[in-house]
Write a structure and sequence with these properties.
Blueprint lengths: L2 H31 L4 H19 L4 H18 L1 H5 L1
């Protein structure tokens, strides 16, 4: 396996881990609260991204960006009914 393949596989796994972590957090919030507080989910994702960025640096940028984008998407998805009415 070449270095390029390792980097691509690492990036794919970072993105999948970010989506999985954010979806798990959203479902945990649903289990505890009955709905997903959008700002809590987004703030937790941004806070985690900042912590990871300070801890390991730019190396895991794919993971950090993915959890922020996934948090925004899942917050809109789970609160879509409240946004309409």
């Amino acid at each position: 396996m070449t270095q390029y393949n390792r980097e691509e596989l690492s990036l794919i796994l970072q993105v999948l881990a970010g989506i999985t972590l954010t979806m798990g957090a959203a479902f945990a919030l649903i289990a505890y609260n009955g709905d997903v507080p959008a700002f809590v989910l987004i703030a937790a994702a941004v806070g985690l991204a900042i912590i990871i960025g300070c801890w390991v640096g730019i190396r895991h940028l794919g993971f950090m960006v993915t959890i922020i984008i996934a948090a925004i998407v899942f917050a809109v998805f789970f609160n879509f009914g409240a946004l309409l009415g």
